[in-house]
Design brief:
Radius of gyration of chain A: 21 Å
Number of strands of chain A: 10
CATH architecture of the largest domain in chain A: 2-Layer Sandwich
Largest interface: A-B, 34 and 34 residues
Strand content of chain A: 5-15%
Largest sheet of chain A: 8 strands, antiparallel
Order of helices and strands of chain A: HEHEHHEEEHEEEHHEEHHHHH
Distance between the termini of chain A: 31 Å
Number of helices of chain A: 12
Oligomer: homodimer
Shape of chain A: globular
Helix content of chain A: 40-55%
Strand order of the largest sheet of chain A: 2-3-4-5-1-8-10-9
Chain lengths: 359, 359
């Protein structure tokens, strides 16, 4: 499989078919695992890393369930391809930016990926559409079991799975849901919600993990602590808080509809109009306008576009995607133009002539 | 003729068919005349005014060329109808706001109108599309001659026509062109142009005459002085300066196209997108966006809409027009909504669902 093929497709988690997918974009679980026979990554020599990479790669090839997956040598990929995989949420920013032997296994449905030599030797990730942690858990548990049949994980009777960072020791599990919370942002309640989440030891991050700014009003809510808790408890914690967050967001949307329906309709409709007609547009503005449109579609205020299209535009209008889809390198100015072209092509209506001399 | 019938129509000067009509919206000439038998308006009693109104009204009825015109008793019109005639440029704001007996004759093509008891007893106005002062002059001269066959004008051998305000004494003529100068505004050259015009005794005003702000980048350029000049000289002065202004504006547009085509295209295209999708919009924002769209159409950057439509939207989206077209009184909030609805209905593309509950 070539990355270009992936570019034109759309991961399962973007289909917007899962439960509560008007607010919960995706449910994600990742497990951190290390091979017992090698030091943690930070203590590894280059040869150690290469050996880990080869070992795991060979094991993947032996697993019947991995027949359709693609393995990518991340170290050998050009910048734009690594960035592409980050935008796709298949590898972390850290994995893209690191050095040395490392790779990633990608399921053709993009429901799961396995990073080799990220912070830990192996990081398994499963991502499902909507609020659906049980099925994500079922899948990742199965993958983890299959892997364990082929490799010796670093495991301690009392502590559980051993990981490079102490915060991951135990289950090595991070459970998260990606939420779209535009109404909580608009009604200025989002900070209050975050403070409440921090009090119960849940972390809040933006679209692309730690430290990334919340773009497009997307927020990832996940557990902070893994030691001393079972997998079931961790899943339960996030599963329990998600419905409350969904309800807050729904109430905020209803409040906006009840109290200022006209302004809300105007806001989302204008956002759609700008996306349909801009001739050059930044990534930030695109995210912001798409966020308004996404809420507008979910509230029935915009009917000309479907949620999967909007979800996909969030990803496809990012810099590496634009370049992969166009099949050429583009600088910032060219990307802003290509982004506007791409948006106009994929959103109905609002057509203006492209005019003579248009790229 | 009912005013409602006028509302749905479009005056000849809005058809955008005249010479240079990408920049010169209309050419206008008005003549100030007074009846020799009555004092100037400011010295008139209510009875005098009523007598003047009756005299002129009776004369109009005798003129064969006025068979198709409508006479409106401006004093008897409700506020919204007077405002409607101002927006239509058929009467002045002052005429709308005054007290006492007064009226207006309106040609069904809206090429000419005659105000009774404005600042002078009679003000004749002719307005043609594009830069076309000679034909406007020909028509107004004919009307003036016809009137003079029926009434005695206050005329002084040496001074010429006598008028209420000394600045109008002589020919009683004001010659003006309405220019659309968005590129001179955008390139910040407009103030410089105005200073040059003032030096040669030309006045610059907004869309609705004295003191009105330049809305939608429309500017009315006219002679300041009439005494001591012949009609031909006054027409020549404005006729000579108009091509220079047209050239400045064209150069500014070309500069924008050459130096920042993309930004310009983006600006006009987004303006179009907003007009096509807003759910509520003020008059000021509408004027500003329509101005961008008008330039965009004239530069071939927008092709989905025709100039006569844009010209008409400038007039039809104003407050009295919206109410006449809708057939009901509307407050500010309702007007902003009706304006957005009207714009969406009359501009192609950029459709978003009106959503449930949308009126």
């Amino acid at each position: 499989m070539r990355l270009e093929e992936l570019a034109g497709k759309c991961g399962e988690w973007l289909r917007g078919s899962g439960p509560e997918s008007d607010i919960v974009v995706s449910s994600r679980i990742r497990l951190a695992r290390n091979l017992a026979d090698y030091p943690f990554i930070r203590k590894c020599t280059g040869l150690d890393r290469a050996a880990i990479e080869k070992t795991l790669r060979d094991k993947f090839a032996q697993i019947p369930g991995f027949r359709d997956v693609a393995y990518w040598d991340v170290n050998g990929l050009p910048d734009v391809d690594r960035q592409f995989l980050v935008e796709r949420q298949l590898i972390s920013r850290e994995h893209a930016d690191a050095d040395g032997a490392r790779g990633v296994v990608i399921d053709p449905n993009e429901q799961f990926s396995l990073m080799v030599n990220e912070e830990d030797h192996l990081r398994i990730q499963v991502m499902h559409s909507g609020l659906d942690l049980p099925s994500a858990w079922e899948q990742i548990n199965r993958i983890d079991d299959v892997m364990e049949e082929h490799v010796y994980y670093a495991f301690h009777e009392r502590l559980g799975y051993l990981t490079a960072c102490p915060t991951n020791v135990g289950t090595g599990m991070r459970v998260s849901v990606m939420l779209h919370l535009p109404a909580l942002v608009l009604t200025r309640q989002i900070e209050k919600v975050f403070r409440s989440l921090h009090k119960i030891s849940l972390a809040v991050r933006g679209l692309y993990g730690e430290g990334s700014q919340a773009m497009g009003d997307f927020y990832q809510v996940s557990n902070q602590i893994t030691l001393g808790k079972t997998e079931a408890e961790l899943i339960q914690q996030v599963s329990e808080v998600a419905p409350a967050l969904i309800e807050y967001e729904r109430k905020a949307r209803q409040y906006l509809v009840d109290e200022s329906r006209r302004e809300l309709h105007d806001r989302v409709s204008r956002a759609y109009g700008l996306l349909c007609t801009a001739q050059t547009i930044s990534s930030e503005e695109t995210m912001q306008l798409l966020s308004s449109v996404r809420m507008g579609v979910n509230l029935g205020l915009i009917r000309d576009v479907a949620i999967p299209t909007v979800n996909q535009l969030f990803i496809h209008t990012q810099r590496a995607h634009l370049q992969k889809l166009r099949g050429m390198e583009l600088d910032t100015i060219e990307r802003d133009i290509e982004r506007a072209n791409y948006l106009r092509r994929h959103l109905k209506g609002g057509s203006t002539s492209d005019g003579p001399g248009q790229n």
